[in-house]
């Protein structure tokens, strides 16, 4: 009989294998390909990102630059540049996570550069666990391949700890995350697993930063 931990390990392995193009170099705009824009987010700051969905739902995310400074700087820079406005959650797996931030909308796009992966198996201590509501960066199998794609945990998946750069958590609007995860009709099986079917797209209207 398969236990809960084995299921979690299977999900984590599935997640890694199907992120084969998440650090892609396709650019929505002309970013510096040598690295993320330099934004001064001090490690004593706690930026709050407000994500408004096209249907009116709002999710607020608290970010932790003291845990993952490069990741937070990059995310804040993209938010302030309007990069995420109009993009979708292109991969939705209830009981696991919702993934967005791809300008191509299919898991292959990014901002045109890659950032350092801030997690323990890449030499950087990151104590933030992948619990329900935590936001983390998607990547390919290369550790330093994250760009703009992120995922928000619908439920705990602690097997991801140490392999992905968690950098914040939902502080308001977890009901919106639940609605996206549980009520969006998605494709099943094959390479399109988790992709919303036509007419079920979950669109981010706008993201803003409070700091």
From TrEMBL:
TM annotation in the entry: none
GO biological process per UniProt: protein folding
EC class: isomerase
Signal peptide interval: 1-20
Presence of keyword Isomerase: yes
InterPro entries membership: Cyclophilin-like_dom_sf (IPR029000), Cyclophilin-type_PPIase_CS (IPR020892), Cyclophilin-type_PPIase_dom (IPR002130), Cyclophilin_A-like (IPR044666)
Pfam families per record: Pro_isomerase
UniProt keywords, alphabetically: Isomerase, Rotamase, Signal
One Gene Ontology term of the molecular function aspect: peptidyl-prolyl cis-trans isomerase activity
Catalytic activity: [protein]-peptidylproline (omega=180) = [protein]-peptidylproline (omega=0)
Gene3D superfamilies listed in its UniProt record: Cyclophilin-like
Span of domain PPIase cyclophilin-type: 49-196
EC number from the UniProt entry: 5.2.1.8
Family of the protein in this entry: Belongs to the cyclophilin-type PPIase family.
Annotated function: PPIases accelerate the folding of proteins. It catalyzes the cis-trans isomerization of proline imidic peptide bonds in oligopeptides.
Protein name: Peptidyl-prolyl cis-trans isomerase
Species of provenance: Shouchella clausii (Alkalihalobacillus clausii)
Lineage: Bacteria, Bacillati, Bacillota, Bacilli, Bacillales
